[in-house]
Amino acid sequence: MVLSTPDLEGSLREVADITSRMLPEHPMVAITLRRDGDAITVASTGPHATLIDELQRGQGLGPCLEALHTATPVAVTDMSTETRWGAYPARMLAQGIHSVHSQPLLVDDAAVGTLNLYSPRPETFGPAALRAIMLTSAHTAILLSAAINSARQAELTAQLRSALASRSIIDQALGITMAQRHCDRDAAFEVLRAASQRENVKLVVVAAQVIRAVTGNDPTPPHFNVPTRPKRVRRNS
């Protein structure tokens, strides 16, 4: 499912900026989301934050990816003494980064992304900063949950419309077949089903071929009316 939209990315950029401004030392902030089985940086406080956030993608190791996979926070208090993740610590030090904190963004107890903070100083993220980070991640997760629900609803609506459109085309083809063969609906359906199996194509494709052969035109898709809220009538007192 695609989580990222222009509106969502704009909101997440605001989250990154606000998080950076409210914390001591104003660390760089980046937000990573799962997308099509991968982890993508979708918002940050600037190009440098995006660059260092994406450095771990190449070798598939780093605090952000670990937080995403384990759904638990991952902290690096001093990159100069860090021994995890292969060459990652050296690459971070080369970018001037000495401490990192990756906070998972949890929706229904699953990590859908991470809030990643990068500082040029070691031991930047103390107890007060961590409390603020946890609060920010919780609010960001609410935003992502709403986006996920909206995306699911849009996907379900699209699937329903596709199913109804297919049903309309099949119904039209059944009517044509019944008229041509002087048979009932069940017999007409068996004719279309047999053609579908014989040609190894979906039933709706066969139905469209029947309509096209008779009318010379492609099937007309059904029109869907999008429900709207009724306007409130204002009464004069």
UniProtKB/TrEMBL annotation:
It holds the Pfam family GAF_2. PROSITE patterns: ANTAR. Keywords: Kinase, Transcription, Transcription regulation, Transferase. Coiled coil: none annotated. Residues 217-237 are annotated as: Disordered. InterPro entries: ANTAR (IPR005561), CheY-like_superfamily (IPR011006), GAF (IPR003018), GAF-like_dom_sf (IPR029016), GAF_ANTAR (IPR012074), WH-like_DNA-bd_sf (IPR036388). This is GAF domain-containing protein.
